[in-house]
Structures
1.
Amino acid sequence: MLTLEPGSAAVLARAAGAAALVSARASVSWPGRSPSGPAQGALHGHAAADRAGAGYRPQFDIAGSAIAEPTLPAAASAPVVEVYMLGPFRVFANDRAIDEWPHGKGKAIFKYLAAHRARPVPREVLMDVFWPDAGPGAARNNLNVAIHGLRKALARADADHAFVLFAQGCYSLDPALRLWIDAEAFIAHLQRGRAAEQRGDTAAAMAEYRIAQAIHHRPLLVEDRYESWLVPHRQRLRGGCVELLNRLAEHAFDQGDFETCVAFAHKLLEVDNCDEQAHRLLMRCYSRMGHVHLALRQYHFCVDTLARELDLIPGPPTVALSRQLRQRQAI
């Protein structure tokens, strides 16, 4: 049976209707907004491709929990909500930017619920994450105030819909929302790429990896770099990004497309400038392109970076490759 915390009676009817839903996996009708900047534009284009093609169907939320299929279709009147978490945090509801967030923790709570949307989040978990030093009474009061402010901010986009539900002591985003989250889309395309590789369809795998790479243009919630609850999620997404960039770079190298390989290898170094494998890949690419001086320069970049960042020297494979380059051996 659904129960609501004090002050939330206005969402009772909406919550009761949505309680039977498990996930908001409905096709998102993308608004006609022109996102700003090349990264947002590419992301918007890939989302449209999702809608027209296989569809954006995430199997896991950002926290890695499985998202069940919906038991009921989302209502056509349910708000379209787009959440950008890779890079600066942005939310659009019915093509309206949510810019006026409440003071306090309301915005942070929305981020947490979006990252863990596969299952309701117990009230006590939110209290512990956001008010760890407060007593139970004070933490609960702070949470109620934050949720009230959050609902008020979201209501500016659609006053007739409850975006945040409370049921059996837990909070969640309304599963009836037609929701698109960029980090979930990244995970979905990464998974589809892996599946394509397993069935031997390399071309399909590389296409999925390219889309995923375009989506993951910045780390998760860059403005919240010191939030401890984000650390495992950020690491999981970063690991997936490194995996697909390695596969894209290796495939380009094997195809003799050295310029593309160089571009992906540089992106790997943007993620981790101490990645010796990426440095070696660049050295090989430059050598194959006839630019031995650039290959040796990359080796010196590697030496300097490892010394500065880790107080280390390159490993034997990297040193051996530099010797081959100096001796003008074919690599």
2.
Amino acid sequence: MIDSDFNIADYCAEADECELILSFCQLVDTMIKDIQHLEAECVRTRYQLSKHLEEPEDLYYRSNILSGLRTPYYDSLAYQMYMAIYYDGGDPLSFREWTSAINRLAKGFEDDRF
């Protein structure tokens, strides 16, 4: 996960080791997994709720099932560092595996990975 060429001094001149940064990134990674789980549960619940609505509200509700789930984090310097260290600059909330899974959940197909 951590790039072997990573040098904490490149990011923080006062740091003499990366233990704190590594711990921070591990915490953020755990929090991202929690966010994914909570978003998946929200989508599952919204889908189940839509089954109890009448037309056309049910179709409208399902078409907006993914709206308003999260705030983008990519503008945060801390999140950028986390992505650089853990995912070579990629955003785990934008990876195909995640977006495909959440879109399938929005259509009622179960995915127990999240």
3.
Amino acid sequence: MSTVAEIEAALERLPVQEAQNIARWLQKYLEHQSETNTAAASLTRLRLPDYAARRRMIFGDKVLPNMVLLGREHEHW
């Protein structure tokens, strides 16, 4: 029994009470899976790029000037 059609056919042959028991079990199972997937998704961390490592890779150990501060020195407030 591996296809949906086979499962549906087997459920149709069951008494109504048994089919309802399976439906309740399936509903609980799906709710549990949904909760598990939601919890797992909230636990995954967003990995941000390491900009400092990238800067070191490109420029080495050079100290770069803070361009914002330099720009503010030249502005007239």
